[in-house]
Amino acid sequence: MPEGVSNSLEEADSQGSKNSSHMKDDNIGMETLASELQKMPLLLEDDGTSDDHALELNLAYGDHDQLPSREIINKKISDDDLGLLPGSHDSDASNSLPSAIGRENSIKQDLIGRRPRNYHASNIVGDHHLNPSSGESEHEYWVYFACHLLKWEAFNPDTKTWMSHLPVIQADKCFELSDKESMGVGTQLLVLGKDVLGQIIYKYNVFTNSWSEARLMNKPRCLFGSASLGKTAIFAGGVDGNGKITDAVEIYDSETGAWETLPSLLKPRKMSSGVYMDGKFYVIGGSGGNDMKPYDCGEEYDLATKKWRAIPNMSPGGGGGSSAPPLLAVVDNELYAADCAAMEVKKYDKKRNLWWSIGSLPERASNIDGWGIAFRGCGKRVVIVGGPRTHTDTHVDIYSWVPSEGPPEWTIVGRKKSDSFVYNCAIMCYCSN
Q1: Which H or E element spans position 23?
Q2: Burial class, 98, CB count within 10 angstroms (exposed 0-12 / middle 13-18 / buried 19+)
Q3: Helix 40-47 × helix 52-61 angle, to 10°
Q4: How many Cα atoms within 13 Å fall on the side-chain side of residue 92?
Q5: Residue 422 falls within a domain, yes or no?
Q6: What single string gives the DSSP state of each residue in 34-54?
Q7: Considering only CA atoms, which of 347, 92, 1, 60 is closest in space to residue 220?
Q8: Which one, 33, 59, 99, 234, has least CB within 10 Å?
Q9: What is the pLDDT of residue 433?
Q10: Do 245 and 292 form a contact (C-beta atoms < 8 A)?
Q11: Is 181 part of a structural domain of the chain?
Q12: pLDDT, tens digit, for every residue of 373-402?
C-alpha cells in the first residue's frame, strides 16, 4: 500500500474541531459560508425581497466592511493538526506516514499507483472518463473535496483509500471567508476566490504536494460554468468584479499556466454548470437577462470550429434564485443530473433533447436548494459527496453508483468525520501506461 494512504472506510479526523475553535478564537465578525447558505431561504423570506444577485456577490467577494485588513495566516500545520489515519500508528518506519516536508516521491506513488516514471500528465481528466489513446492504461480517480474553508481531502472510490497530509492553503481572512470555486485540471487543483487585494487563484500541484498562486484570468470573475479535459479547462460566463454578468469564455492550460480568450457565449449567464461530452464543451442553465430568470437552455462549444450553438430545454433546472447551479455528471458520454427538489436522478436524452427520471438520490443526500452536496462523474461512476443533516450527525458520506450496471443503486464507499458543510469538490484522474 502506498505511504500516507488508509484503506479504512471511516477516517478519524481531529481537524474539524480544531477549525471550529480556530474560527471562534479569531473573533471574525462574519459567519461562514455554510451558515449563510443554511440561512438563505430564511433571509429571502424575512425581508420579502429576491435580491439573490446581491447575496451571491456578497458570498463571492465578501463584505469588506466586516472583513479585517490583510493578515496572512502563517500558522504551521503539524502532523497532529492534520490528523492521522487509522492503521498509520505502526511503529515500523516502513509503514509510517511521510513527513510534512520533502515527501515528493511518496506523494507521486500515492497518486499514480507507484508508477511515477510512466505517468502521463496529458492524460489527466476532470469530471468524466477518458479512454487511453494507445496501449494498456491504468486509471486512478480521486475525489478532492473541502469541508473546511482552507483544508482539502482526497479519496479514491475504487480502492477506498484516503490521501493523507494535503497541505492547508495559506491565505488571508478575506479568501478564507469568501465563496470559492474549484477545478481539477492536469496535475493541478485550482481554487478560485478573492482575497483582500482582489481576485486570486491558488493551485495545488500533485507532484510537489504544495500550494502556490496561479495566473489570473484575462477577465477575472466568479460564478462561472466550467469543466476540464486533459491539461486544459474552460471557464464560461460568470460575474465580474463590478457585479456585471458576463459572456466571457477562457481556456486554461495547466502546463503553461496561460489563459486564452475564446469566443463569447451567445448569452451572458451566471450560476451555470459546465461539462465535456462527446468531445465538446457545454454550459448549461444558470440565469441572466433583465428579468434574471433561470435559463432553460444550454450552449455547445465545438473546439474544432470554435463556434457556439444554442440548445433549448437542455437545463434540468437550478442556477436561479437561491438555487445552486445544476448538479451534473458525465459518465461514458452520458449526462446525468441530481434533482434535489424531487430527490431524483435524471438522464439527458440527447436525441429527443429531454430529461427523464431514472431513480432516486440517496436519502442522506441532504441539501439546501442544491447547496451542500457534490454530484460528479468519476470514471465509470457517479459519486455524491454529502454533508451532515443535523448538528449531531458528524459524517460526510461518499456514495457511488455505476450507470452501466443498471438504475441508480447507491453504495457508501467512503465516510469521514466532519461537522461542516461540503464547500467544493473536484475530480482528477491519473493515468499511466
Answers
A1: helix 15-26
A2: buried
A3: 140
A4: 5
A5: no
A6: HHHHHTHHHHHHHH----HHH
A7: 60
A8: 99
A9: 52
A10: no
A11: yes
A12: 999 999 999 999 997 666 777 889 999 999
User: Which residue's C-alpha cell is 433546472?
Assistant: 317
Helix (H, G, I), strand (E, B) or coil at 374: strand
- 109 membership: H or E segment, kind and range: helix 104-112
Asked whether the predicted pLDDT for residue 79 surpasses 50, the reply is no
CB 300 within 8 A of CB 309: yes
Q: Which three cell numbers stand for residue 189?
A: 487543483
**CATH number of the CATH domain containing 196:** 2.120.10
Q: Are 61 and 241 in contact (CB under 8 A)?
A: yes
| DSSP codes, 259-312 | EEEEPPPSS--BS-EEEEETTEEEEE--B-SSS-PBP--EEEEETTTTEEEEET
Q: Is residue 377 part of a domain?
A: no
Query: Does residue 94 form part of some domain?
Result: yes
Angle at 307 between CA 304 and CA 309, to 5 degrees: 120
Domain span at residue 31 reads 5-324
Q: How many domains does the chain have?
A: 1
The helix or strand, by DSSP H or E, that contains position 411, with its residue range, turns out to be strand 411-417
Tell me the pTM: 0.73
Which of 189, 137, 160 is closest to 86 using CA atoms? Answer: 160
